[in-house]
Amino acid sequence: MTRTRIAGITVGQSPRTDMTDDLKAALSDTLELVQYGALDDLTLADVRQELAPAAGDEVLVSRMRDGSQVTFSGERVVPLVQARVDQAEREGARAVIVLCTGAFPQLRHRVPLVFPQPLLHSVARALAGDDSVAVVVPETSQVEQARARWSASGVQVDVVAASPYAGIGGVTEAARGLAGSGAAFLCLDCMGFSRAMRDAAREASGLDVLLPRTLVARVVSELLG
Questions:
Q1: Which of 155, 183, 204, 208 is in Cβ range 3.0-4.6 Å of 175 for a Cys bridge?
Q2: How far is CA 140 from CA 26, 59, 121, 166, 225, in A?
Q3: CATH code at position 40
């Protein structure tokens, strides 16, 4: 069977071996996932020197190839993401998923270009109605920007931080702190959060959980699969 090629572009380095199994499990078996990384040509020292967030920049958190966490400017990484979109299209991708829940400007593209943030926010807004939603982001430096982004999307949120790159324990602890919060459900607001973390967060918080990596994969499967 000939499978349809789709690209997954991480804002960190590829391959995202921590993400691959979850994505493939949620994607139609008619789709072939090929990964690209915005930071593939950079060292950790390069990222810290060239992409450090300036005052007012959106802060993004991702993963280097060796598994280490890296923090950088959302604005400064955009040209590198655009270069990978261009490359993926040249190499035959029929759709491109940006594997990050951050906010991005409109990028140049010829095939469907899928950003998780608007999908996640739209689904959460539709499900929550007038109720609040609990949100977990990777870094405390992202709490206020996440609150502002979600509010702009019309969703009342309670935001806490726990990094998916520091293990499942921190995610479980953060979720446990949301038990009894009265939130309609919980959103794990980073593509780094795994299905195992979703399950642990659900058990610890007593809340239903939206996971962006599987949500996006299922939407793309509906479109192309």
A1: 204
A2: 29, 10, 20, 14, 37
A3: 3.40.50.1860
